[in-house]
Amino acid sequence: MRFLHTADWQLGMTRHFLAGDAQPRYSAARRDAVAGLGALAAEVGAEFVVVAGDVFEHNQLAPQVVSQSLEAMRAIGVPVFLLPGNHDPLDASSVYTSALFTAERPDNVVVLDRAGVHQVRPGLEIVAAPWRSKAPTTDLVAAALEGLEPGPATRVLVAHGGVDVLDPDRDKPSLIRLAVLDDALASGALHYVALGDKHSLTQVGDSGRVWYSGSPEVTNFDDVESDPGHVLVVDIDDDGAVTVTPKDVGYWRFVTLRRPVDNNRDIADLDMNLDQMADKERTVVRLALTGSLTVTDRAALDTCLDRYGRLFAWLGLWDRHTELAVVPADGEFTDLGIGGFAAAAVEELVAAARADDSTAADAQAALALLLRLADRGAA
């Protein structure tokens, strides 16, 4: 028996830094990743798809998002089992019980809306642990598994949330206990555990049967999500042996670059690195830059950032991790070809830029603009 394990689609997600056409393209890519599961299922011969929570970004979605999402699920073709998670719980405002979802839900889409065993077909069962609020006060998995004994059917647990061995807050009441999962797997009550909530591909424990698939499209930067963009192909043979094969399906990247920039050579290196990055229209770049620059070099850096800001889906400075000092060099403004009052004003700006007070940043910006207008700040 073979199926696809995926999670954390979070359809309807927006990223505040994406502007212009980048946000619609990103949203479309997330829907395309869902619809594309149909081709993957056909390629590998998957019988069905389980989505381990957070199918939607939240329950209050525009009708267009719901309709387009359901159409993407229809395109998958094989049965798709949706688990409500912490983003889209089965509360009073649940998207899953809305009139629009109910009216347009394709026949191949099934909501795992109750805890416990769901029969997929004779010999195959899903054990579900749906969320009914954003902050459960108990281990939903332990409750769903309570009293479950080994049987003739192959069983797949579909659950959402943090696992105690990976969470620093071991006292959180909603944490999934790995020992409970391992006991159920060892006894034969379960054969595989499909988890959602962690957006990076992650194996949990040593059994080889407990996995987070991660999100099929990236949702955060690489310091938070180290390995997104996957769907898992899961095989369970007649003897209960499990094989898990990750498949790359994501197209977008959220990249963090940390670079020292102290001179024009460093800026040229940064320019080269950015230039060589592929698929700029589907790449988000966050820069953590540190160093001390002359005003001329800072103007060159700004020119570089302006250029690539137009090419990438988004590019900008990570303010909390960027420390750039700008110090005018001696003689840096002596050959601008100006005199009189203008030259005196420049001298005042240079003095202000070197001061350690609130006026320095404005003065540095004014000098950098002056150099760029004088065409000395080209990268």
Automatic annotation (TrEMBL):
Matching Pfam families: Metallophos
Record GO terms (molecular function): exonuclease activity
Domain called Calcineurin-like phosphoesterase: residue spans: 1-220
InterPro entries: Calcineurin-like_PHP, DNA_Repair-Maintenance_Comp, Metallo-depent_PP-like, Mre11_N, UCP033093_metalloPase
Stored Gene3D superfamilies: 3.60.21.10
Domain of life: Bacteria
CDD domains: MPP_Mre11_N
Keywords: Exonuclease, Hydrolase, Nuclease
Annotated family: Belongs to the SbcD family.
Protein name in UniProt: Nuclease SbcCD subunit D
Organism: Mycobacterium conspicuum
